[in-house]
Amino acid sequence: MTGVFSDDLIEDFKKLYETKERFDTIIIVGEEPNVERIYAHSIILCTRSTYFRSALSDKWVERKDGYWILSKPNLNALTFEIILKFLYCGIVDFSNQKVETILEVLVAADEFLIQKLIDFVQSFFITNSYTYLQQSPIKMVHFIIHNNQFNELKEAYLEAICRNPHLLFDSGEFLLLEEDALKLILKCDNLDMKEHVIWKKLVEWGIAQNTVLEDTKSDGMMSVDTKNNDMMYEDTKNNGTMCEDTKSDGMMCEDKENDAINILKETLGELIKLIRFYQMDHKEFIPEVWEYMSILPKDLVKDVLRCYLDSDVKPFYEPFLIRWGNFKIDSILINKEIALLLMKWIDKKSIDDKNIKGFKYKFNLLFRSSLDGFSSQVFHRKCDNKGATFIIAKIKDSKFLIGGYNPLDWVGKNLWKRTTSSFLFAFDPNEHKNAVVSRVNRNDSGNAIYCNDSEGPIFGEGPDLCIPNDNSIFLCQAN
Predict the structure, then answer these.
(1) Where is 458: in which H helix or E strand?
(2) Which domain of life is it from (predicted)?
């Protein structure tokens, strides 16, 4: 018979932690004038932490009058007491602690190589990510930027910011954000924010970094009178009275404005490269970006305008995926999450691949049977010569979606097309992990896609999936 009395053991160690009876270690924490001495037992510290096992030795710390003396000026007493209580009792309570203190505990746990405490604190912050981003967005963002060793925490908070960008961008602290932190966020493909709004916030941030820019804004509205080349200046402090500087032709005001623009250009130099201008609608680009055209690369502006004039041309300077907030999809069957899943299947990536967060392809609705009917002629008129397409349908009285992917096109008369990239699929929109994907057998790739004006889409010689002309029923062949 074996008896386990862990509760008694914890209670005894708790008493030892509180009384410090027969302590043999003195830890001096804090800096003047806030230095404090904390008493502990070396056997407890060394047993619970490999850091203390090495630190409490003659080679590392001073031993005086039978006591180990360890100095930790980088920690305050409250932080070290929380660490100490965990080492003695296995108890951590953050219910009444400030975010700064909890972050200090995490850093200290990392220094002391206490992995279980590191895991607990990270899990605590991840579970409460929304709350802490509401309360202290800048503290949390700057922490993950300056402490790359907590990668799990970093990924979780970037994910939370991307899902809820208002917590940071609309906070009163946004203008205090460090450039490296802003740069990291702007690199995120899954940032759920329209690009023109990101640009507007970026300009606001750039102006706030320089007092010269702020002064230029507060001086009043400035405009050039193109008829007489004089600078007209509206002084809002003097009830909008206007003065015409005929002696200097407004050069002083113009110089000040030019200086402000040059400063803004320099401030935003690296960050501008992360803005996805091509993903803005022209109705967003013109009102939000045009007035700052002089701080953008001229070739970029010309190319963006070229793409607006001809939607079929490819941009020269677009190295980015389509950001989550910029992705558009006009469908009643699929949303952004499902579109991302379909994209992973196109690229033969795992469903669990978390590195893919933006969109490589655009999804344009070509044909909807509830509006267009089931005529094969209408289908081909709307879907031929459109390149790769998805055919998707919802099973009646079910949540399940089924469909197929044609990487080629639907043009042809009584024509089989060869491809190994086509696939069929079936899945519950709420349970992606249980999805079934059936890809073309290489030996049968010559009969992957069948095209005929008198038929709807047909996959496989079986056929494995097809929609006959004027038929609302998908025909499938089970394997």
Answers:
(1) strand 458-459
(2) Eukaryota
What secondary structure letter does DSSP report for 167?
H
Question: Cα separation of 428 and 54, whole Å?
Answer: 54
What is the distance between the alpha carbons of residues 64 and 66, in angstroms, rounded to a whole number? 5
| Residue 222 CA neighbour count, 13 Å, CB half | 20
Contact of 450 with 355, CB cutoff 8 Å? no
**Residue 183, CB-side half-sphere exposure with 13 Å CA sphere:** 11
- The strand order across the sheet containing 401-406 reads 389-394, 401-406, 423-428, 431-439
In this structure, the number of other CB atoms found within 10 A of the CB of residue 53 comes to 14
| CA atoms lying within 13 Å on the CB side of residue 257 | 17
Token pair of 385, please? 């010569």
Q: pTM to 2 decimals?
A: 0.83
> CA of 458: how far to CAs of 414, 424, 464, 476, in Å?
11, 11, 8, 10
Cα–Cα distances (Å) from 192 to 62, 164, 328, in that order, read: 55, 7, 12
- Kindly state the tokens that stand for 311: 């939607």
Asked if residue 108 lies in contact with residue 83, where contact means CB atoms within 8 angstroms, the answer is yes
Residues 6+ apart with CB under 8 A from 432: 337, 341, 351
The mean pLDDT values, 10 residues at a time, for the chain of 479 residues are 76 92 94 93 95 89 89 94 95 94 97 96 97 96 96 96 97 95 97 97 94 54 35 39 47 67 92 96 92 92 93 88 94 93 94 90 92 91 94 90 95 93 93 90 90 91 84 64
241-249: long-range contacts, CB 8 A cutoff, minimum separation 24: none
Sign of CA dihedral 201, 207, 210, 211: negative
